[in-house]
Amino acid sequence: MKMLLLKTWRDMKARKGQFIGLIILVMLGIAIYSAFVGAASDLQASADRSNEEFHLADFETRVMAAPTEVAGEIADIDGVETVQGRLIVDTGLDMGTDEVAIRVVGIPADASPAVDEVDVVEGSYLDSSRPKRVLAHNGFAEARDVQVGDSLRVRVDGATADVEVGGLAQSAEYFFLRRVKDEMPNAEEFGVLWAPQETVEELFGQPDTYNSFAVLLEDGADRDAVIDEVESVLGEYYVLSSTTIEDQPSNFGIQEEIKQNREMAGLMPFLILAVSAMALAIAMARLVQSQRGEIGLSKALGYTDRQVLMQYLTYSVVVAVVGSVLGIALGQLSAYGISEMYRTLLNLPILESSFHAEVAGGAVLLSVVVCLVAGISPAVRSARMAPAKAMHSDPNLSQTKGRIPIVERLLGWAMPRTIAFRLPLRNVFRSRRRSVYTVLGTIFALVLIVSTWALNDSIGYLMAAQFEEIDLWGAAVTFDENIPVSEARAAADVRGVTDVDTALATPVTLSAGDEERELILSAISPDADFHGFEVEEGAEVEETLRGGGLVLPGNLARTLGVGVGDTVEVASPYIDGTIDIEVETLSKEMWGSPLFVGEEVGRRLVDSDQSLANVAYVDYEGVTDDEIEKALFAQPRVADVRMKNAVVEMLEGSMGLFRAVVGLLFVFAFAVAFVVIYNTFTTNVIERTREIATIQTIGEDRRHMAWMITAENLLLAVVSVPFGVLAGLWAAQQMFDEVSTEAYTLPAYISPDSYWLIAGSVLAILLLSEIPPLRRIFRMDLAEATKVME
Amino acid sequence: MSITTTTDTLVTLEKVTKTYTMGEVVINALNGIDLAIKRGEFLAVLGPSGSGKTTLLNMLGGIDSPTSGRIVVDGEDITNHKRKQLTYYRREKVGFIFQFFNLIPTLTAVENVRYAWELAARDGGAPNTRPEKLLEAVGIGDRANHFPSQMSGGEQQRVAVARALAKDPVMILGDEPTGNLDFRMGKLVLGSLKELNDRGKTVVLVTHNSPIAAIADRVLHIRDGVIFEEEINEHPTPADEIVW
Ligand SMILES: Nc1ncnc2c1ncn2[C@@H]1O[C@H](COP(=O)(O)OP(=O)(O)OP(=O)(O)O)[C@@H](O)[C@H]1O
Ligand SMILES: [Mg+2]
What we know:
Mean pLDDT of chain A: 86
Distance between the termini of chain A: 25 Å
Shape of chain B: globular
Shape of chain A: elongated
Number of helices of chain B: 7
CATH class of chain B: Alpha Beta
Strand order of the largest sheet of chain B: 6-7-8-3-9-10
Number of strands of chain A: 21
Low-confidence stretches of chain B: none
Distance between the termini of chain B: 31 Å
Structural class of chain B: alpha/beta
Low-confidence stretches of chain A: 392-398
Number of domains of chain B: 1
Structural class of chain A: alpha+beta
Strand content of chain A: 15-25%
Bound molecules: adenosine-5'-triphosphate, magnesium ion
Oligomer: heterodimer
Strand content of chain B: 25-35%
Order of helices and strands of chain B: EEEHEEHEHHHEHEHEE
Helix content of chain A: 40-55%
Radius of gyration of chain A: 34 Å
Number of domains of chain A: 5
Largest interface: A-B, 33 and 43 residues
Largest sheet of chain A: 10 strands, mixed
Largest sheet of chain B: 6 strands, mixed
Helix content of chain B: 25-40%
CATH topology of chain B: Rossmann fold
CATH architecture of chain B: 3-Layer(aba) Sandwich
């Protein structure tokens, strides 16, 4: 037995490159898988702990205005542990060059609130003796370069009031800086100021008023029951909403990111792990297969089948174990890096990083099983072989059956007759098993490279399509209520504005059969051109808008189970009952599910005789973004101005992390692809050592040798590339379908530039992978190699 | 032993040694070989296993270099040849016949021969005899388009003989070319070699089978890396009379 172990050791040394290749394969597969899955759970733990430590409210109830004493009544409700009343006012902040939206939150001046804690990161907490001192949100401060000691000009009823920044702070309510769930966090355009409650009351003329109650529940309290009671206590003050922690805008956003990260972890890294496993299986099988001669020898020397089997299993186990240990270490390190990147992006103050034994265990188990299964079957077959047959390896009967491939039979007349040309061609088809292994290896490699790249390109494609073909406006102005279209069109007089389209965006409930969706419906004029439509099915959009029909995104229609000609029921907050509208057009949308109707339907939905609007989409020319933004803000009744360029820029910015992750995946994919192809090529050479040595012995030179090997590999690659690209796009589409919702679909897309990049990477991998086998060829000991058994 | 070098001397070996070092162990495979081979000579090298026969042949064939000493073949001193020079030397001057035939399995019989022929043609004029003719010469012209896997061992080895001939080398080296053949096939192969020799090719044949050596003009007995006896066959036995 000792002898066999020694032999295993020698085998490993003799095929050092391949052996290390297999270990790296296992390592990379496990590393990337455990890194992403680990990062996803680290992130979840970090978010949970951050929420806990910063006492994020279990729910928040908003009212129009309630006297501050009512907080005491809420505190007395069974199940309420703590309640914090606040006066919250959304207004503007004059930043000189431009205007940003700001939320002013009234909190106790002497100590941080007990719920939705405000944690000072720089400067000092509020001071009741200095009522004009406020705390600014740290993310906002950073984005707008606001420093401790700066003075800020808050808009108050048409005038402005100056406050001084006494400190920068963070709060679980605003880790993800936004007011509502579907808003893109944009610290450049929106900020939070925490001020003494009394100051807010005084500034906005609302003495002794709270309009928000943040509640922490006792353990085991029935949340729904408590919310009901709180709403009944606050009933007379007009309850606007109660938002639970799951729907809290910041927390919701973070949980969504974590979910996406987790989905991503379930896809690409799993694909890499799966490809590694398959490549490993093939490599193991080939390795054992190619050692049949030696297996026979061992048996001839008197080793039993079991001992021989054990030898190969030892080999498999060593690969699995060493690869796993390295993979877990690398995975743990990468997991930390990935969670840290996400933590920074999501603005979480705490990073929880732990060792995920279950993840690592799963990956290791998989790799050990793969190694064993892959090693066992050829080892068993070899071990069962009669020793003489295996050992003799019968050189009289050459193992490779020669044949002339079809291509050559058909096109041979057009090819050079030289053997140096024909040999590579014959080698491509010499053994079905070998070709299949090689082609599969190359396909695996391509799947990884193509699908990571599709991940990158598809997002870019989606953004380009959205902002160049669908969102055809420059600025979107939101009014503080529904106003007559003629008033909303006033923006047309602003200098630089070239076109204004108005829309009445109404929250609606759309029902079709058993399906029901809360959506935003826009009533627009048939001439409006701020939104680029692509009709999937049905009437032209203009016709539908004129005729009182509904334009419905095709994706949504399919999940709702409706088509052109069907009728859906629409309910809005302004009317009792519902309105029936016929679906006349199915449109193709990339992002979100925008619904469109004509102005007449709009009037019915808000129960009004005249056409109203609450959004104006503006095109402009010859003025800067800042100028137009400021000019639009200065218009009457304007609540918010969104600039498309700013949105795009912000999205591009947040893509940075995504790109980094894709880049990381690409590096892993490239490495796995390299190892897979390297192993395949090396094995292709090792498997016919004697033949290659013979060719050199009869006088073939290095240049021709290298050309023949390269030609053979390139031919194999050419056969594999189309399949690989298709399989890669298919794999990418599968992954995207997994993450797509009815609100957005991601097409698996590769940009023309990327095809070059992919071709370049593949070529680089092919050529790099050739170096070691070629070196092996050039260094062959011909005397020995012409005699080896194959 | 003194070597007389004359104009018809093809190969000269002077004090050739070859030492293999495997860790601590040093093996002297060749221990000072002095040898001259004449043009057109049929030389047999006979000796027990491990005596250094293959090592000697490798030195002659340029697939290994001596540790010390000097080797001159056809006026070319190959002792200190670099890999590349050795490649060209093998390509132009040596025809190999291996114990296990070593045909390229993806090439047909005639293509195997043609490959060697093309190699020789690469750096100059193509050798006179066409591959097809060579196969006919060794008696398997009808097998030209068969792949090695479709041929018997003897047929394969005769293809190998034709391949060795294809480049019109100055000498043919065979390391136990009959070792893997049955008696009848072995005789056919020996016959082919003898015929070549009769037409003037220099042949060096390694064997551990003394009856086979009877075919040669001269027999070297080697043991422990030295030539300890040399035998001249005044009347070499024809191939079909050899029995072993
Ligand atoms: N590459 C090598 N490394 C180490 N030792 C070697 C090597 N090649 C040959 N030897 C040793 O050199 C000696 C001569 O070997 P060689 O192969 O020339 O013998 P041989 O006469 O051809 O034997 P056989 O009849 O068994 O083929 C032997 O002891 C052998 O073990
Ligand atoms: Mg030998």
